[in-house]
Design goal:
With 200 residues, the protein is mainly α. It has one domain. It is 88% helix and 0% strand. It has eight helices and no strands. The longest helix has 42 residues.
């Protein structure tokens, strides 16, 4: 048996919290919902785009998160509420409009809302700040990279889930996922408002 070195222990301790914060299996149904009607090639392209967006946001935040937020005069709570509003609008649009109508209105959902705030949202950003303070920038960056590789693999292979569900099942699944997306959005707004009120 291999001995677990302190470095590997630190890596696991930095990897697991970020894995939980990103929750790739939890956001997979929402990814499937937002990519309803797309071809497998389009879905894979979107998976790459959203993962790269998440990587850029995560790296910038790991390197200069606190100074940027301080300079802009915003907090994680503000980010949470803003992200929640965006997700709520998107969820309502997804429930009320057809796939064709949504495609005419959408430009790139890979950046917003999939890249951020779904993959890298308030929970992940807060976790990244804590990891940098606890384990340093190198291990945090490595954990971000490995986690996002897993996200890319899961998203790129979401077509298999859709094939199993079939067209009718996929559409029904997408609508249910949109309802959960709306609930997640309301939760983000609610938690943000509670934090603001509790600090006043």
């Amino acid at each position: 048996m291999f001995a677990v070195t302190p470095l590997w222990t630190k890596f696991l301790l930095s990897f697991v919290p970020l894995f939980v914060a990103i929750d790739v299996l939890g956001i997979l149904p929402i990814f499937i919902s937002l990519t309803e009607g797309m071809s497998d090639r389009q879905r894979k392209k979107l998976a790459v785009e959203s993962t790269l967006t998440a990587l850029v946001v995560a790296v910038i935040f790991a390197l200069a998160g606190r100074p940027i937020f301080t300079f802009l005069g915003i907090t994680i709570t503000d980010f949470r509420i803003g992200g929640g509003i965006i997700l709520l609008v998107l969820a309502v649009s997804d429930l009320l409009f057809s796939t064709e109508e949504r495609k005419r209105k959408e430009t790139s959902i890979g950046v917003v809302p999939i890249g951020t705030p779904l993959i890298i949202g308030p929970a992940a950003l807060t976790t990244i700040l804590l990891l940098v303070d606890t384990y340093g920038i190198f291990l945090t960056m490595f954990s971000i990279f490995i986690n996002l590789i897993l996200v890319l693999i899961v998203f790129a292979n979401s077509g298999y889930v859709i094939k199993i569900l079939g067209n009718a099942g996929s559409r029904a699944f997408a609508k249910v996922a949109s309802l959960f997306l709306a609930a997640i959005a309301v939760m983000m707004i609610r938690v943000g408002l509670v934090e603001i009120l509790s600090n006043n």
